[in-house]
Every structure is written in C-alpha cells, then in structure tokens.
Amino acid sequence: MDEATLVKAKGICKTFPGVKALVNVDFELRSGEIHCLMGENGAGKSTLIKVLTGVEILDAGEIFLAGQPIAPSSPHHAQQLGISTVYQEVNLCSNLSVAENIFIGREPLRFGSIDWKEMNRRSQDLLAKMSLNIDVTQPLERYSVAIQQMVAIARALDISAKVLILDEPTSSLDAKEVEKLFGLMSKLKAEGLGIIFVTHFIEQVYAVSDRITILRNGELVGSYETANLPRVQLIAKMIGKAFEGFESSCKNAKDSNPKESRNAFLRVRGLGHKGSIHPFDLAINRGEVLGLVGLLGSGRTELARTIFGIDRADSGEIVIEGQTVAIHSPADAIQYGLAYCSENRKTEGIIENLSVRENIVLALQGKLGWMKYIPKKKQVEISNKYIQLLNIKTSGLEQNIKNLSGGNQQKVMLARWLLTEPKLLILDEPTRGIDVGAKVEIQKLILSLAETGMSVIFISSELDESLRCSSRMAVLRDRVKIAEISEEEMEEKYIMQTIAGV
Amino acid sequence: MEKIGYLWNRFTSSKLCWPLAALFFVLLFNFFFTKNFFTIEIKDGHFYGVTIDILNRAAPLMLLAIGMTLVIATKGIDISVGSMIAISGAVAASLIGGKLEYVDGVKTLVTLVPMPVAILAALLVTTLLGMWNGLLVSKVGIQPIVATLILLVAGRGIAQLITQGQIITVYYKPFQFIGTGYVLGLPFSLFIVGLVFGITLYAVRKTALGMFIESIGINAVASRFAGINVSKYIFSVYAFSGLCAGLAGLIICSNVSSADGNNAGLFIELDAILAVSLGGNSLDGGRFSLVGSLIGALVIQSITTTIYALGVPPEITLVVKSVVVIIICLLQSAKFRKMVFAKWAQKRGIISEKNAAKL
Questions:
Q1: pLDDT the model gives residue A248
Q2: ipTM of the complex
Q3: Is the CB of B17 inside 8 Å of chain A's CB atoms?
Q4: CA distance B64 to B85
Q5: Measured CA distances, A107 to A115, A118, A155, A274 (Å)
Q6: Contact check, Cβ <8 Å, A363/B226
Q7: Under CATH, which architecture does the A338-421 domain have?
Q8: CA A288 to chain centre
Q9: Cα distance from B354 to chain A (closest Cα, Å)?
Q10: CATH 3.40.50.300 fits A5-239, yes or no
Q11: Within a 10 A sphere around the Cβ of B121, how many other Cβ atoms?
C-alpha cells in the first residue's frame, strides 16, 4: 500500500433483499485528492458511501483507514474515525444560528452552561479558515444555500478531518456558488484531505477531480486518472454497452412503421418552466416512439412534467392536433389524451392501501369525474382484462397494491394509463428497478402500442434500451434540449458524444 | 359450523369489529349496572327509554362525525365544528326570534322571518364557513389544524356578535320540533341523521367520491398525477363538514330553545374526532368507514349517559370518561393487543397443543 493511500476498501459486497447492491467493489482514496464517484442511478454509489460511513453494514470485504482496518458501525462512529459526509440536502437547522449549527450536540461548556463567546469565536475561526467571513450569530436561513453548504462542511471538518464525502453538493447551487465551493475543495485538498465527490454533472467532474471511479450495476468498472479519460469514454463506461440482448424483432416492428402516415400529434413551441427546464420545441408524430436521453438531472423528467401540466409552463404553447391548448394540471392533460407514468412509482404512482382494482381504474374514473361512476362489475371486468393482457401477477383484484413486486406495480401503472386510451403516453423510466423479464415485456408493449398509432415519449437512463425502442431521440443536457437525432443518425457513439457535449 | 367459523373470521378481521365490541361492552356494563337501561316504554305514542335517549342525544355528534370522517379521510381535520354549531344556532335563533304578541287579545307567536328561511340561512352560513376552511386548506395550503383553528377561535366571537352577547331564547314552538319532536314514535333528530347518513353513504359508495377521497388521503401527489382534481375534493369535504355542523347546531339550539354563543357545542369537535377514531378510522387518512364513526359517536354518548345514570359525582365525570376512552383506544390498538395478549395467546396455544396431544 503506498504512502498516500488514505482509505482503501477491498472486495466490498452488500446485498439488499432481492438486489445485489455492491459486488466485490474495490475503492481507493489518496490523501490530497478529489476523487469522483460516478455511475448511473442504482449503480451502487450511494450504497458504497453508506457502507463507508456506517449507515449500512457491509456483508463482506474490508475497509482500511490510513492502513488500519476499520468497521464503521454508525455515522457517528464513522465521524469519530475521521470520515464525515455532507449530503445533497443541507441537514442543518435553518432557524438556529450559524455557530449553533456548527457546534450543535457538542457545545463548548463553561460551568455547566454553554459558553457562547467561545462557541462564536471558534465558529468565526473555522469559517475564516475557509475564507468565509460572515456573522456567525445570525440564523442560518439568512444565508444562501451555498453558504449553508459550506457551514455544513465546516461542521464536518471540525468534527473530524481526514476524509470528506460530498454527496451531490452542487445540485442546488448556481454557477457562482459552485465556483466558490470548488475553491474551498481545492484548498482542503492542498491541506491533505481526501475528498470523495459525487455528482451528476460531467463538467464539474472535469473541473475539480483528480481521479474517477466508475460503478455500474453494483460492480466496479474501474478507476481512472481524470486527465486520461475522455468524456465519451466516461459516459460509455457509465452507461455500459450491453448489446447481447438486442432483439431484432423489435427493430423490425419499428422499421415497418410507415412514415407517410405520420403527422404531428403534438407540437410544442418554446415551452419552459423557470428553474427546471429551459424553453424547448418538440414535435411528436402519431405512432412514434420519441426517446428522451441525457444524464440524470439533465431535464428529461422536467420536460415531461411541463408538458403534462404538473409544473405549470411559464412560457410557450402546446398544440395538439392543430389546436392550441391550455394545460394547467394533469387533469387537463388527461382530457387531451395525454398520460404520464412517473419515474417515482412509490411517491407519484401507486396509491398504497388501495386495491389493485382501484389503482387500475383511478385515472379513468378521474377522467370521467365522480358522477359517472364505473359500476363495480365493470371495474372488475376491465381490471381482469388488463391483468391478463399485461400478465400482472397478483393474488387477486382486491389485493393491496403495496404487496405486489415492483415490476407488477409498474404494470398496474401501465394498465391505469392504457385504460384512459391515451394518444400520447409519456413513460418515465418505466423499467427502472424491475427484473429483466418484465423489462423486455414492457419494451415489447411500448412498440406494439406505437404500432397501433399511439405516440410514446420514452425516458430511460439505459441507452441500449432507448436505442431499441425509440424511432427518434431528443437529447438533453443541463436542463436544455440540445439536439434531436433522427433514426438514421441513431448510433451509440454519436449519441454519447452529443450527451457529453464534445 | 364451518360457515359460522368463516363468518366469524370475516367479522373479526373487519374494521368494524373493535368499534362494535366497544359498544357491546359499554352496553353490557349497563345491562348489569344501570336500572331499566334497556326498557323501552311507550308514553304519549312515543318510544321512551334510556337507549332512545342516547340515540337522541347522540344525533348532533353523529352528524359531526359523518362530516369529520370525510375530512379526516383526506388526511385533514376540522376543529372548528363546535364554533360553527354556535354560529348556526345564533343565526337561526336571531332570525326566528319569536316575540309574544297579542293580536285581538289572542297570544300569538311571531317570527321575524319564516322558519324555513331562518334554517336555510343558518345552514348557508355554516356551509360558507366550511368553504372558507376548505379554501384555506386546499388553495392557500395552510395545514388543516391551523386553518380550522382560526374559525375555532374566531367562530365563537362571530356567534357572540350575532347574538349581541346575549343568550337568545326561541319561543317559537315549531322550531322546537327539530330537537324535541317525534315522528313515528322516534325522535325527529334521528331522521335527520338517517337522511344525511343515507345520502353520504350513497355518495361515497355509489359514486367515485369515496375512492377519490381515500386516494387523496393516502397519496395526494399521486392522485393529482392520476388526474384527480385534488383541491376541489378537499374543498368540498370541508364545506360538507360545515353543513353537517350547521345541522347539528340547529338540533342543539332547538333542543334547548336557545342560542348560547359561548357554550353551544363547546369542545364537541374533540368528541367528533374521537368518534371517528373510535370508529376504527385512521387519523392518517385513507380508508374510512362511516358506519364505524356512527358507532364511535354512540359509544361516546353511551358512556356519557351511563356516567350520569350511575350518579358519578359531576366533578369526576370527565376523569371516568377519559379512563373508559383510554381503555377503548388501547384495545383498538393492534400493537397494544399484541403486547398484552401475545403471552396469553401463547399460553393458550400451549394448552390447546397439550390437549391435542392428550387426544
């Protein structure tokens, strides 16, 4: 082990019920470096961090800190050992003062009461070291998110200062604030700290990091010097290139789609929502599967939400079948024949504690209104039809939906939307977190739906899946729609270059 | 035998099992300790007895519980119903007034406005106040308990304003029929409860309202995404709760022939919430049972009546009531039952195993 190695993790394995989150992952952090941890959603980044910080206990493997084997058993224990974490959302009390936030739980005492003078003085010193001169007696909420973030870092550093983990610290910061944070990170790096930096922004990776470790599906892809890893290769390694399962039948179905019959079902001009998606133009033809690609946080979901009226557009217009329409809410969108299957199945999709039947008929009933009640007999009939059609595995119609597996819940969501007979179906990560068999079923379903003339917007983080299903693609980066890729140009390397922006 | 076993299993696993058990035990207690509890006589063509009295007195609470059930099912709460009762009574009483006048030497009662107009006005006012609550919760986004707290506090003031700080007495006889009259030998107020209950039950089970309300209570975000106009339904349940409170207010006001802005319906909102909870409904929203809430209301009124019937000294009635309520709540908690009865069940299991071994 060389001198500079600060943290070394060997053969880390972690299994959750049904999921292998980490398989034999090695990781090494040197002192005085900023090390990026990269990977798409579900790649195992957060699990690795949780293992390092004692939130999760590893199943197998070893962790060494400065050559000594350690076994962090809780975040508190990890902090004592010298590993601190600052999370994406600032975990501080915004109505307490800056100094209180830094010393909460370990206030300096004098004769049994809090020594405010000492606490404020030490806070001032700590922040001064980070070239931050603010009034520490002011409540934290007075300051910008960036400053709050730095206060969180100051707190983490004061507790222990060997390893600092920053989990997506920049996602709520603007460009200037990011710069400030990077300045601080470089400073800390020069002091010999090891920093693990998790982010989805490729630009930032290349701006600050020294090395990159890439994970995919819980496995280690490799560790690389940032300078020696071109962006396209980074993305290729993150997304992976598994083309073994390519089904030619799917492709044929796609090609057989007669182009002449296509005319635009929906046309969007300059639609945007401040803070989530820049104004974009988009047209979707009948019977077309439009893939939205881009990295996580690039604005794919935000684009869909704006069309569907979840986030009310503050600019632009939507034209459906030649008519300009006003969509202010999902209910409006559904009336115009739109359907949106959210990526957050649990929080934005299923209604727990309601039965499979009720979950299936919900959107159709919503479309009809409360007066036009679908008789129970009819509900049973149509639910059964879709359970058979989509091959939903459930012990019965009245089964509580939360008892179904993820894949079957997803199929119930599909059934809910298909029942409303949409003309445009927006699917946001419909295959996330479900097993391979169900994935293929859903992909086939999408293609057969398109054949019947339904338009589909397909959002997926898996590039090969998007390639397989889409007949056209729109690429997003940093909340801007940057390109459209026609079927002829749809080639993996080109798409990745577009995503990476080179 | 098998069929009975099946039915029994269905009953014990149903949500109404524990509310019914609670009611059963309260009644059982009375069967042994309260004289003539179940005796029903016919006097002047009316049914008369303690049980009828309980039903009659529970009428306002049952009405509140119906409205409250829907509000709670949307994960909300309405703590302003007590104040709305006071306002409803104040509006009706001040509009009817009822002066004694001598017309041609004959004593006649005169109303300021016709009684139906007064009643409609009272219901309209409370419905509007319910809408105000609904507006604050659904459009302005204030937390339900805070939004309705405003009216809880301000409502009594409004009632005082209407009655000009006085207790208004209603002499107009026909108005007293609402709270004291009999139809077919039964108190008229029960028919009001029956009508409201019937309409509500039909609305939530024979239209899609019930499913929407439950869906909103469980997951408002997902419901909105599924195309349900969430704020419209939340707004409506508060308005409906206001209407129910208005009806309850009329019954109470009519029953005592007066409107007291200070004390009419004081703390009854807590009883209403308790009734919903005793009825096996979760305060966390979602699945609800209207029947359960009615049973809950009857349990509460039975306890109150029992305490009076037993002659418990007035200074400790509240303590006795609270002890009974605590016991019922504990019995309804699955966690508590598991904690206490697990050992007992285990023992029994061992005994029955031993018995089986003997055989």
A1: 39
A2: 0.83
A3: no
A4: 10
A5: 8, 9, 12, 41
A6: yes
A7: 3-Layer(aba) Sandwich (3.40)
A8: 26
A9: 36
A10: yes
A11: 18
